[in-house]
Structures are given as C-alpha cells and as structure tokens.
Write a structure and sequence with these properties.
alpha/beta, Rossmann fold, DNA polymerase, domain 1, 10 helices, binds magnesium ion
C-alpha cells in the first residue's frame, strides 16, 4: 500500500480500459428479462454515469413508472452482474495505452491506488481482470455503493481512511468525463481528466478540472500533476 500521502482514484471505462460491449449487452438482456423492454438503448450517453443511474434512465426511456422500475431494480442489477461475469471472457477489454506502466510506476512510488467507478463492484473487478489490471486495486467506490457519483468517490476516500489508515490530503480523481471531474470536486479531490473516452481535451477544458491529459502515456506529466 502507498504511504507517500497521495491517493489516486481511477475511473475504469475510458480511463484505464476500453471495451464495454459485454457490459452494454448485460443492460440489454436485463431490461428485456425483467421489463420486457426491447428498445434500442444505444443512443443514451452513458459516459461517466453509474450503472444504477444508467439502468434508471433506460427504464424511464421505456416509459415505465417509478413503482414498476423500483420493483425489479435490484433483481435487474443482479442479473446484469451475472450476465457480465458469465460472458466477459468473450470480450476484448483492453488496457489503454500507458496505463499498465503508469500503475507500475505509481506503485513503485508508493502512491495509494483505488477506484472510483460507476460500474457495479463485481463488474469492475472482472473487467479489470480481463485487462490484466485487477492486481493494482483492492478497494474503491462503485456504482453498487451509490447511484450518485460524488457519493461513491466519497465512499472510496472513506474506505482509504478507515480501512487503510490513509491520513493524507492529496487526493486525485482520474477520469475521462465531465461527470468524473464534477464528482471528484464535490468529494474534495483534485482532478485529472484524460481524453481517452468520448470527450476531447477541448470539451474537458470546459470543466473545472485541474489537469487535462491526452492519454496516460506521458508518465512524467502525470507524476508532475500529482506533485510527486
Ligand atoms: Mg469513464
């Protein structure tokens, strides 16, 4: 575990890895099974949203009433998870350029690593495993903790403090969307945005982000940004 006072919380999709077809399919299968919904849900902008938030939006798009949505909501999330874990082996989840070496470097420098992702926790770890990145992470805040992203970032910070005695105050949230930036700021963290998801650097510049990077290949800049 890191002990140099820096905590780095990474988003997964579009930040550490790409390839979310199986995750998308899990949503499609689950809403069909529990709600009989077969609409095309590919038009929704999922970037930066949590799994429960996405599921709710999908079902609202399908015109379901709150009460109906609530009734099978947890079952639907559970089914999604099962579907994902069963089928992830067919998916090509790829670590984005520079990521593995950066994580090695941060570990070596004793930066404390965690996750802040909208993925449900079992999906998050299965996805990272598929990309060969699961061994860097042992805790985080997940979509299964909170539907609202700022709250799951706070949860990750709380776990760092309570479970791992993290006592520093140099906390960074690294993500690829304006929602990551907003969530990090609301949780009191500094933020780094990477343009490896669906947002370009100029779009990310419109947020109140502290640092923007084209991708995670420039390790020197990353190290400088987190003040190492
Ligand atoms: Mg993302």
């Amino acid at each position: 575990m890191g002990n140099n006072g820096i905590l780095a919380l990474f988003d997964i999709d579009g930040t550490l890895v790409r390839g979310a077809r199986c995750h998308y399919q899990a949503f499609v299968k689950a809403v069909d099974k529990f709600y009989g919904m077969k609409e095309d849900i590919s038009g929704i902008n999922y970037a930066g949203k949590t799994d429960p938030q996405i599921l709710k939006e999908v079902l609202e798009l399908g015109g379901f009433e709150e009460e109906i949505i609530e009734k099978n909501f947890q079952n639907c999330l559970t089914y999604m998870t099962k579907y994902y874990l069963t089928n992830v082996h067919q998916e090509n989840v790829i670590a984005l350029a520079g990521v593995k070496n950066l994580l090695d470097l941060l570990e070596k420098e004793k930066v404390f690593l965690g996750l802040s992702t909208g993925n449900l926790e079992p999906i998050a770890y299965a996805k990272l495993k598929r990309a060969g990145l699961n061994e860097y992470f042992s805790f985080g805040g997940f979509g299964s903790d909170h539907a609202e992203r700022p709250l799951l970032v706070k949860k990750a910070i709380e776990i760092a403090k309570v479970r791992y005695n993290y006592a520093g105050d140099r906390i960074y949230v690294i993500g690829d969307t304006p929602l990551d930036v907003e969530a990090g700021r609301k949780a009191g963290a500094r933020t780094i945005a990477v343009a490896t998801g669906r947002y370009s650097t100029s779009e990310l510049q419109k947020t109140k982000v502290d640092f923007i990077m084209d991708d995670l290949t420039d390790h020197e800049s990353f190290i400088k940004n987190i003040g190492l």
